[in-house]
Structures are given as C-alpha cells and as structure tokens.
Design a protein that fits this description.
mainly alpha; single chain; two-stranded antiparallel ribbon; about 170 residues; 2 strands
C-alpha cells in the first residue's frame, strides 16, 4: 500500500498536509523508517534540551515528543477498531488536555525513547496483521470517515510533521 494510492475520501482534509508531506511511500516501509528516524533523532538529543521551549506558551521538547507518542496511540486504536470492522463512531481527542497529563517533564530521554519504540513496534505489528480488506475498511472518527490505511499514513505524516518543527524551532 502506497500513500499515493490513498483516496482523499478516506480521511479528514485536516490530515491532507501530513499525507502529502510523505510523498510516494509504502506504508510499512514508512512506519519502519519513521522508527529509525525518531530513534536516531533521540539518540543525538542532549538530555538537557528536553525541557526547552522556543516560546512562552509553547510545549517543551519533551511535551512534543510525548504528544507524538500519545497521538500515535490514539491513531493506532482507531486503526484497530476500523480494521476489525467496528463501526462505532469514535470521538476526537484534545491534545491540549493530553499534553499536561503526560508527565513529560519527569521523563528521561531513555524513558521517552523506550516508550516510543514500544508504541511504534505495536503499530507495526498491528498493521502487519491487516489484510487488504481490513486496510480499506472505513470507520468514523471526529465526525469524519477514515480508513484503516489512512490511520497508518497519518501516524507517519504526523510524526514527520512534528520532527520537522522540532528541527526548525528547537535546535
């Protein structure tokens, strides 16, 4: 499954820039490469930089990293529900409620990286379990139709989006 094969009708237009930013990628390759990119980034990150924020009212670097992890968990759960043919509409989530509750400031770089790797490995395992029919199933999240496969590309694009911002504003 490639990102260019994903019809825009399978996801909320809000996520279009995330998917476009990926270019023409294979979903499983993108999930695995994204794990390598995030891990490489984290390994080079000075521990003291975690509580840095580039402006008043902006999240700290640790909070952004935990937001990436939390959002992946939410998108992964949506993919599970859609892939298993559960058509119960799912509510949105408020990232601004999640971030302060993530306890990001109390986590070490290793703890954040370990948590990320556990979540991403779970995402990869989940998407490996889906056949073509499951990937194409449509569910409802945040009052929008979304496919299982769209959730996978949104996970990849969301992470890429935030790593780009981190490299621009937190370096």
């Amino acid at each position: 499954m490639r990102s260019t094969d994903l019809p825009v009708s399978e996801y909320n237009p809000y996520y279009h820039t995330y998917i476009l930013a990926l270019g023409d990628v294979n979903l499983m390759v993108s999930l695995k490469e994204g794990e390598k990119d995030f891990s490489f980034f984290m390994e080079g990150l000075p521990e003291g930089k975690l509580n840095y924020s580039y402006g008043e009212g902006k999240w700290t670097l640790a909070e952004v990293l935990m937001h990436i992890i939390d959002a992946e968990r939410v998108f992964q759960y949506r993919a599970l529900r859609f892939g298993r043919n559960d058509d119960t509409p799912l509510a949105g989530f408020d990232q601004d409620v999640y971030v302060p509750q993530s306890n990001a400031s109390g986590k070490t770089k290793k703890e954040i990286l370990d948590e990320y790797q556990a979540v991403r490995n779970g995402t990869i395992s989940l998407f490996k379990s889906f056949d073509d029919d499951a990937l194409k199933r449509i569910g409802t999240a945040s009052d929008s139709n979304m496919s299982t496969r769209a959730m996978g590309f949104i996970i990849c694009g969301h992470q890429a989006h935030h790593l780009k911002i981190i490299r621009e504003r937190y370096s």
